[in-house]
Amino acid sequence: MKRSSSAFLLAFIFLGSLNVCLASVIISEIELNPNDTCNDCSEWVEFYSSAQTDLTNWYISDASGKNQTLNLNIEGYYILQNLTISLNNANEQLFIYDSMNNLIFNTSIISDSLNNNQTWQYCSGEWIFTNSTRGIVNNCQIQNSNNTSNQTNNNSTSNTNTSENDSLYLKLDWDDEDIVSNKEFIVVVKAFNLANEDYDVKIFIEDEDGTIVSETYNEPEGAWQSGNYYIEDCLQGEGEDQQSIKLRLKQDNLSGDFKIGAKIRIYGASSIVADITKDIEVILNNLTLTEENLSFQNHTSNSNVEVIRLNSKSTSKNNKTLTANSIVYKSKNEYIREYAPYAFGMLCIILTIVLILNLDQNKNV
């Protein structure tokens, strides 16, 4: 009985721990520009976790790189109202980092020019601008007509923008034919609307599980590094800048559909100020050593080849195509092999003549 009770207790603890580990902490709602007519109106951020989660030494960061430590223990919805950072009404973006500085979640770039009770709400990977649902489930079925004028400048996965917007955004360029499994290739990272700052760049290729499968060449350091790391001081503002960065895959046999991503941050900071993710296809290089040798043989069989002949006499059929004009050098032994039959024939002729002369002399005597 004790054994079954202990087993039940261990299973309960395990399932509880598993539930915490699988809990996903997100920002579910944001009030950037509250109504001025209400009492105690201020900016606030709503978090949501599917299970009890300890956020000790976690922090949020805004688009300008300012941070606020959380030190919370939440389950379900939690409203953070006493913000030590001031949210911008235009081109704002928030990030959640854990105690190890890992990025857990980030919003799109959002704007709110209306002093009312409408908020930005996270709905199935997208952000919509609608009436506030503070502390309860978001109203994802209703999109206010103001959503068009207050639309997000970026989405959470691709951060694609137009040049008509003043917010920072990225583009990636590459040649599809260059993305081969066992070769190095170049990807151009282009940044627009940079502030007067230096920026670090992280560029990587990841599989469907989110595992980074590429390495990046850090040109200032002259070494290859994991795609998990930034290249420091890679882009410079103000305005536009671009950098050609060399990548390669960690394994030679990878092929198929992957994701290529890039992130930038202000030099030495921890907050991401822009990122982009796009689809990319990796081509498997099927050229093997045997095929290369076969190609070389086909080439040489149709060409005039200069041969250096040494001691061995090849029996290959290809030697039938060789001519005297093709041979640029012969060893001493090769000359002996070639002219020995002639020398032996001459010796036989001389001996025959000597024998005939001796027979004639004997008859005369």
Produce a short descriptive summary:
The protein is α+β, with helices and mostly antiparallel strands and 365 residues long. It is built from three helices and 20 strands. Strand 6 (95-97) and strand 7 (103-106) form a beta hairpin.
Describe this structure as you would to a colleague.
The protein has 365 residues and is of the alpha+beta class. The chain folds into three domains: 20-147, Immunoglobulin-like; 169-282, Immunoglobulin-like, CATH 2.60.40; 305-364. Helix content is 18%, strand content 36%. Strand 6 and strand 7 (103-106) form a beta hairpin. The chain is rod-shaped and about 155 Å long.
The run of helices and strands is: HEEEEEEEEEEEEEEEEEEHEEH
- Percent strand equals 35-45%
How many extended strands?
Answer: 20
Q: Any idea of the CATH class of the largest domain? A: Mainly Beta
Report low-confidence residues grouped into runs of 5 or more. Answer: 1-23, 143-165, 288-296, 312-328
Q: Mean of the pLDDT scores?
A: 76
Main beta sheet: strand number and arrangement? 5 strands, antiparallel
Structural class: alpha+beta
- What is the number of helices? 3
CATH architecture of the largest domain: Sandwich
User: What is the CA-atom radius of gyration, in angstroms?
Assistant: 38 Å
What is the domain total for the residues?
Answer: 3
CATH topology of the largest domain: Immunoglobulin-like
Gross morphology: rod-shaped
Kindly report how far apart the N and C termini lie: 136 Å
Main sheet: which strands, in order across?
5-2-1-8-9
Kindly state the percentage of residues in helix.
10-25%
